[in-house]
Structure formats: structure tokens, C-alpha cells
Amino acid sequence: MIGTVDDYGRALCFITVRHPATSVTVTLQAWIDTGFTGGVMLTRSQISGLGLSATAAARGTLADGTQTLFETYSCLVDWFGHVRNIEALGGSGRFALIGVGLVEDLRLTIDYPAKAVFVFQPPRPG
After folding, report:
1. What three-state secondary structure class fits 41?
2. d(CA 12, CA 95)
3. Labelling 43: which of 10, 32, 77, 118 has CA 20 to 30 A away?
4. Cα–Cα nearest to 35, from 99, 89, 87, 93
5. Strand, coil or helix: 85
6. What residues does each domain of the chain span?
């Protein structure tokens, strides 16, 4: 997967998210946020566009230490040749977020001078 670094230093790439019960699918630009330990956070407009319904709530801690409650939404994410069923958090940002929960087994390289992002599966040992 190849992405870009925008003028604000955000590492961005495209992901495909699907409603778990319908054929509604969107490909959206997401910000890789290594401070976010979850898998995916979707914006309100993305949640609405997919027609997702809240399934639960999860407590989270923001960067400033504030505790908050996030609604969660069941969805499918196409990720490196596999469809992953995940509980995405609902957020209010401009971009969807990809967190450590999706990239922890991958190699992530952000080349700021080239404004390029590379996410790939490392070779398996042995």
C-alpha cells in the first residue's frame, strides 16, 4: 500500500470499508495515527454514508488524557487481501484514522522528504 504525506505532515492512504450486511462500500482517505491504539475511526459523514448503526460504546483516552465515550460501528475493512470484521470508533475529525490495531503486524515507512507512505507485509522469517 502506498500513500502520501500531506502539507501538514499527515501520513494518508486509502482504505476500503464495507457495511457488514449490505453491498455499500466506500474507499476513503485515512490518516495513519500511531497514537491511536484501535483499528479504525470513521468520521460521522463516513458512518452515515455507509449506513452503519451504532453497536456499542467504548471508553477511550484522548491525547490530552481526557476520558471519553466513543460509539462503535461494526464494519468490514479490506486489508492486505483479507476482509477484517472490526468495530470502528465514531469520531468527529476530518479524516478516518487507521490505528496501531491495523498496522502492528506490518512495516510502516513514512518518507517525509519524498512525501510518501509505504505500508507492507514484512517477509516472514524462515
Report:
1. strand
2. 9
3. 118
4. 99
5. strand
6. 2-120
Q: Looking at this protein, which amino acid is placed at residue 23?
A: S
- Is 90 exceeded by the pLDDT of residue 124? no
Select the highest-mean-pLDDT range: 20-24, 61-65, 107-111.
107-111
Task: Count Cβ atoms within 10 A of the Cβ of residue 116 and give its class: 0-12 exposed, 13-18 middle, 19 or more buried.
Answer: middle
What burial class does residue 49 get, using C-beta atoms within 10 Å of its C-beta: 0-12 exposed, 13-18 middle, 19+ buried?
Answer: middle
- Name the DSSP class of 48: H
Summarised one tens digit per residue, pLDDT across range 78-89 is: 999 999 999 999
Cβ atoms of residues 18 and 28 within 8 Å: no
Q: Which long-range contacts (CB under 8 A, 24 or more apart) does 84-88 make?
A: 84/39, 85/20, 86/39, 86/40, 87/39, 87/55, 87/56, 87/58, 88/17, 88/39, 88/40, 88/41, 88/42, 88/47, 88/52
What are the cell numbers at 72?
462503535
Q: What is the pTM of this model?
A: 0.89
Superfamily for 2-120?
Acid Proteases (2.40.70.10)
